[in-house]
Amino acid sequence: MADEAKAATSYEAGLKGASSRVAEFHEDTNTLKKIQHWLHQTPSAVPMIVLVVSLIVFGLLSDNFFKATTLSTILQQIAIVGILGCAQTIVILTAGIDLSVGAIAVFSSVLMGQMTFRYGLPAEVSIALGLCLGTAMGAVNGFLISRLKLPPFIVTLGTWQILLASNFIYSRNETIRSSDIGEQAPALQFWGGSIEAGGVKVLYAVFLMIALVAIMAYVLRSTAWGRHVYAVGDDPDAAELAGVQTKRVLIQVYALAGLFCAIAGWVMIGRFGSVSPTASTGQLGNIQSITAVVIGGISLFGGRGSIVGMFFGALIVGVFEMGLRLVGTDPQWTFFLIGVLIIFAVAVDQWIRKVAA
Amino acid sequence: MEPILKARGLVKRYGKVTALDRCDFDLLPGEILAVIGDNGAGKSSLIKALSGAVVPDEGEIWLEGRQVAFGSPLDARGAGIETVYQTLAMSPALSIADNMFMGRELRKPGVMGRLFRQLDRPAMERFAREKLNELGLMTIQNINQAVETLSGGQRQGVAVARAAAFGSKVVILDEPTAALGVKESRRVLELIRDVRARGIPIILISHNMPHVFEVADRIHIHRLGRRLCVIDPKDHTMSDAVAFMTGAKLPDGVEEAA
């Protein structure tokens, strides 16, 4: 049998004299290939380039565009979408989707308002409760998706309707007026406050959005939890075998998304002044946040992209809306162009993925 | 000698299919135990039960004489059992270092690590580079490149390096040379011997008979969901082994079960 073992490995004797050099990588000389590789490593580069180009184009088309007030208005208008986008980003990174972000935001804002005005709780307490309840709504999504293994699209399609309906039933369709909130519970409107510098108003909400994006960029990039979020989205089975507690990560992701939505709900009170169960965010928040995420170069298949890209994506939408209005075109062109951008972004994503092959 | 890893009466059913049928298993300290068997014999289910990837319906597992029940791969890993799965279990979009430390990341010392949970990337990258160099099959320029940009062989190398680096009690290798070239396979076989030299026993699942007969101390032959016999590669030929695992021949003192 020793002979056989020897015979079995004797074919390797043929290796003698073979090249002992190990595999080498050829540098891509092709510029297009280089760009592809670079984009593969910096997924937020595409939206950044689009953003810069659109800023330049609108700057040339309209004299009023590069004014501090214009730019601060753009930021102000994307504040809520940006915060909802943070929620949508972490969910989409896990290869999920959250259609209930807008509903959680509106319902949380209604809960915060009603707890103050119906039950007479101090505004700070109602805010804390509202944030907790928003987190809980997200956690329910996470539970259904990770434990019962239902598809995220279906679960959140369902909770979107359920939460929005609960919101109307619970609030009895009542709006709490801005003046009442201003007098009795100014904390609810906190994020509507602003800093003025040289005649330019910047809402606190804008700083909050930027802070949240910065914090999440750090968490996703530099903590173990962030890496696990990517791993779960990339290949859940592999992540599980490699020692990631995928179910726990999923629940945490959806719960955190719920918290972000509740924060967005609080910001909505500041932005709009009043608490309204019929706020358009309930219906549009989903599509707007998904648009920002997709234009931001985050892959809908999970595991790829950066939250900074989402921020650029939201900015692109804001810049298009504002720029086209200043140029004086039909506002429908905004949606037309955003539609083009979405398809462009996904096409670029597919192209970048080919780098692996 | 007392087995370091022992299993008795493992049963795993998937619907009507019985993948493990009262299966026994013994791994002795410091040995390389090869597990061979025909396709569908239940090798993978056995390995998954031992590595925590599936929970057996019945049966008991002992590690170093203590009974264990693994609910997840993380449990098994915590107990010192490290596995290279056939699918490699790597996240393609993440870097080599990220993958090696998945689920056991190093954090920076001090406030940045404790309070802000910041990863200690330099340390993780240094360690990953070291381990890959030890394995010798790496000419990876950038330890931060995504795993999906590596060739199949390189990926397998990273997976093996990960297991070898962290396995403290048992290392399980499921088809570790399947995607490798002749030279790379040789390196992995050397690595297997290195790991044994460090006193860590290895379970090697392979279809490559020459490799199995070359490195294994004992060979566990799996057939129809259970252990048919354990043979010594010095006493049997490869054709004996193939005959046993396909049922063409019965080993001495074993009767075909139903």
Defining key terms:
heterodimer; A: 357 residues; mainly alpha; ABC transporter involved in vitamin B12 uptake, BtuC; two-stranded antiparallel ribbon; 15 helices; B: alpha/beta; 6-stranded mixed beta sheet; 4-stranded antiparallel beta sheet; 9 helices; cell membrane (chain A); transmembrane (chain A); ABC_transp_permease (chain A); transmembrane transporter activity (chain A); membrane (chain A)
Strand order of the largest sheet of chain A: 1-2
Q: Which runs of chain B of at least 5 residues are low in confidence (pLDDT < 50)?
A: none
Largest sheet of chain B: 6 strands, mixed
Annotation field: number of helices of chain B: 9
Strands of the widest sheet of chain B, in order across it, are 6-7-8-3-9-10
Q: In CATH, what is the homologous superfamily of chain B? A: P-loop containing nucleotide triphosphate hydrolases
- Output the radius of gyration of chain B: 19 Å
Question: Can you offer a commentary on this structure?
Answer:
The complex is a heterodimer of chains A (357) and B (258). Chain A has 357 residues and is mainly α. Chain A has one domain (30-356): ABC transporter involved in vitamin B12 uptake, BtuC. Chain A is 71% helix and 2% strand. Chain A has helices spanning 2-10, 31-41, 45-61, 68-93, 101-117, 123-146, 152-171, 178-184, 204-222, 224-234, 236-241, 246-272, 281-295, 307-327, 332-353; strands at 194-197, 200-203. A two-stranded antiparallel ribbon of chain A has the order 1-2. In chain A, strand 1 (194-197) and strand 2 (200-203) form a beta hairpin. In chain A, helix 4 packs antiparallel against helix 12 and helix 10 packs across helix 12 (246-272). Chain A starts with a helix and ends with a helix. The model of chain A has no long low-confidence stretch (mean pLDDT 88). Chain B has 258 residues and is α/β, with parallel strands linked by helices. Chain B has one domain: P-loop containing nucleotide triphosphate hydrolases (Rossmann fold, 3-Layer(aba) Sandwich). In chain B, 33% of the residues lie in helices and 24% in strands. Chain B is built from nine helices and ten strands. Chain B has helices spanning 43-51, 73-78, 96-100, 111-114, 121-135, 152-166, 182-197, 209-215, 238-246, and strands spanning 5-14, 17-27, 32-37, 58-63, 66-68, 81-84, 170-174, 202-205, 218-223, 226-231. In chain B, the strands form two sheets. Chain B has a six-stranded mixed β-sheet with strand order 6-7-8-3-9-10, with helices on both faces. Chain B has a four-stranded antiparallel β-sheet with strand order 2-1-4-5, with helices on one face. In chain B, helix 5 crosses helix 6 (152-166) and helix 6 (152-166) runs parallel beside helix 7 (182-197). The longest helix of chain B has 16 residues, at 182-197. The A-B interface holds A 1-2, 4-5, 8-9, 11-12, 15, 18, 22-25, 40-41, 218, 222-225, 227-228, 230-231, 234-235, 237-245, 303-304, 355-356 and B 53, 72-74, 77, 83, 85, 87-94, 98-99, 102-105, 107, 116-119, 121, 137, 139, 141, 146, 148-149, 151, 154, 182-183, 186, 209-210, 213-214, 233-238. Chain A: One of its GO terms (molecular function) is transmembrane transporter activity. Chain A: It is found in: Cell membrane.
